Protein 1
Amino acid sequence: GDYIDKIELEGDLSVMQGTDVDTLIQSVVGMTLYVSYKQSGEQTVSVTEEMIDARGFDSSEVGYTYITITYEGRTTDVRIVVTPDMSDAKLLGEYTFEDGLSYALRGETVAFYDNGYALVDGEFYVTYTNKDGVISLNADDETVFFLQEPEEDASTIGSYIPEGTADVYMYTTE
């Protein structure tokens, strides 16, 4: 007989740091859930509160959190981006890395803001510090270091990962 092959929530979800679980649930209720049946193809249903399991939701840290949606026995984990409050943040500069930053930070563009956050590929935020021209980006499972070098045009930075982890050197222009 026909059965549900997979379910998927339409679109990406993001919430601001500190968002409470009730606010999150209300924003997910009514979203479109794509239901793929093995034989009869795709249907859409609206998400109801009963479908949402938000026990894993935690917006206290910037990064990612998850909720689970269940429909007729099938479940899907939905990733939610937790963003900092950027309403007063000013852009300091943006850099491009043609080969990507590193294994964990696959992004190619990094925009630095004056509130200690950097936006990677326009998608997710990480914290960073700048100590005497050495910039460290803090991803979930690794820290990537950059050396901000004084060049004539001030747009070139070299990136390195400290000795012992990998010898990666990258140069790029803004």
Protein 2
Amino acid sequence: AVGFLGTTTGTVWSFQTAPIQASPNALSLESIGGIDLAPTTLQISGGNGQSWTASTTASWDALSITNGTSPGTITLSLSTSKLSPGDYDDTISFTSGAYSFSVPLHLHVLQMSILKMLTDYQRPYIYALQAGNGGLDTAYLLFINTTNEAIENVIPMGQNPTDMTINYGESKLY
């Protein structure tokens, strides 16, 4: 390298990257014990028509497809209903030609502790208020789809929310 104070010599490093990329490149998800989490999508991009394979090792996760060509989409399904509260880790391993990389997957399963549930008579949802433990963003609002019985959305609700209501005139949840 050439700088203001002269030339510095050293080792030259050479590397190559995989011809495909997965997005997101890491997953950190939360679920409530006893209820399966809604599927998550990964986008595969890079060299058009580049073939790839993917795999996982845990019994609680599954990929919709395990091989394809870029660009593409993979759906990750998580069977969390039988998992005990705690932390779980797995890796989604990708191979494309001679290149391999992985997407780390972290799952935190919370103890179910529902304070209140509301039925939305205008949409196919039940809203559930998951109790917090007093820490920052430890309480959640769960959107449970009554059609497929999956939690479709989880929104942090702060420390200790105690109540909620639906205002049908404004079409809002408070």
Protein 3
Amino acid sequence: SKAASRLAPQFAEKGGAGAKKRYAAVVCGSAAPRGTLKGFIVKDEATHTSHIVPEGTAGAKSASLDYTHVCNKNSLALLDVDLHTGRHHQIRCQLAALGMSIKGDLKYGAKRSNSDGSISLHARRIEFFQDCFLLGFVRAVAKLRPKFHALAHLSTPSSCSSLIATLLLISALV
């Protein structure tokens, strides 16, 4: 469609010029306060998974994301993820390669599934420029799934409570 053909290049652009995507992820393990993950990923069509590979590997594509550790409790951590490229299973693959599989993600190393079969990864915001109908810059915020409301109880640090409160407020307004 015409709209898709106009939006697709924004998702392919690098360096912040294109669409922006933000995620909330609950991971198993501990995380550094902040991190930038850069590397190369190849998709395995047979297993429907992706793998970190050395640069120059046939079919590999560059992948980049930033994350911020928000809070943790026991063996779980809440991360705010800023995705720069949108590769197949990129967040799942890159975090798992660091020993931080997403809660419930059996495909990438979680020990147990979530009770509803989902994984604890939430696409919470997308931003892009839309020039049809003179809309300009568009920001869409997804309402939090009910299981993410429980994240407010992960720990007591105000950073976690503030992020969850902000996410809940934004979700209520959209």
Protein 4
Amino acid sequence: QQITSLLSGIALMAVGVAMLGAYALVADTLRRTLGGNIRVITTLMFDLWPARVDADALESAVINLAVNARDAMPQGGNLVITTRNIAAGTKATPEMAPFLLDQIEIAVADTGIGMSEDIASRAFEPFFTTKPVGEGSGLGLSQVLGFAKQSGGGVQIETVLEQGTTIRVYFPRS
């Protein structure tokens, strides 16, 4: 179903989601399932605005980002999940244009190996993977991007070799 909605543009079941509660539950699950050498750190904004998103796709997106982060930290490291509100007219980062509408930002950062510019430029392409054959479908990040776009938002990637990667996902406030 996730691949179908990604590739065919089928509408997701968007409902008003209290983003803080949804992310607190996912972060708790991640702590138990990522392995003992990955430290999950959350900085979740207490008064995070709600967003109109598909709750299952939201959980899947965070898990996809966390699994990619884990794979980028074979010796262990920190997985940091943060959330924040971004008011209309504000830039999320210095490189970005100001948002026209209020946005919710969910960022997943790791202290892993990072990506080269070439890899980062292709990271959201469907079926693109740096993993050995049989170990990755190359759909995780493309699903995150598709979900964000279907929800009226977007995605930004920041990465530095040998320092880690941060992926920021944006959703309009509902």
